[in-house]
Amino acid sequence: MKHAYVFPGQGAQAVGMGKDLYDNVPEAKELFEKANEILGFRITDIMFSGTDEELKQTKVTQPAVFLHSVILAKALNVKPDAVAGHSLGEFSALVVAGALSFEDGLRLVSKRAMAMQKACEIQPGTMAAILGLDDQTVEKVCQEIEGIVVAANYNCPGQLVISGSVEAVDAACEKLKAAGAKRALRLPVGGAFHSPLMEPAKQELEKAINDAPFQTPVCPIYQNVDAKPHTDPAQIKANLIAQLTAPVRWTYIVKNMLADGVTEFTELGPGNVLQGLIKKVSTEVAIESKSTL
Q1: In which band, very low, low, confident or very high, does the pLDDT at 279 lie, cut at 50, 70 and 90?
Q2: Ranges for the Malonyl-CoA:ACP transacylase (MAT) domain (predicted)?
Q3: Which of 59, 65, 118, 278 has its CA 20 to 30 A from that of 12?
Q4: Which residue of the set 68, 69, 86, 87 is catalytic?
Q5: Active-site annotation holds for 163
Q6: Which is the catalytic residue, given 68, 69, 92, 194?
Q7: Average pLDDT in the 40-52 region?
Q8: Is 69 a catalytic residue?
């Protein structure tokens, strides 16, 4: 029996996240305070008692979700057989698997958030969820649209998120509805994540990732860009750099984990989005979501 731990990405955040850990676990409080120091502002104040708007800023959201996941994993003292994370969650997974230190992971997440924010300002974009079509149809329609629009998140069978310039995404939504999509729904995001429009962020982050000290993880990490298990630090870095402009292959990560003998999943962090997605890939598998001890 293999137990995998999985970590959510941006969008899972909620005000109050992590407060019980801060209040009840001395080691957790210490890590949260260390995070406030590293970031140069009291992210804990926004996480525990800020407004939804404050928490929604990319520079806050990404470190907040990362901190909740990683500090919870440390408080639970988890021993994973495999890990994976959705987009930003890949950084949480790397820290929990021992490939990156807590401090280095947080610094990279903060830099990633700032770089993505900047890329959104250079070229505004958006994303849309497409429900009820197979992956190939969505990819084909995206290729037929003028402008930049690509498949960005392969979340589960019948649910794919597309990403690109606002006009191209809107045009693709219309065409996908005509092709039989049950829904084509614009998402409330500030940019075209996991698309070529993130190229400026990728270039900015490349140096930071290359300079960070990565170790061999204690277990394989199934990475977003190819859905395969990795333990080689050089390969992990390369995949992490590619991740910003490449799609998140979540459906295939889950399928590969199941094929490699994973029988139990635990989602650590805010929300339970991944639990729902994993159930759509396999109804048999044991899965739980934990946002507290």
Answers
A1: very high
A2: 6-292
A3: 118
A4: 87
A5: no
A6: 194
A7: 97
A8: no
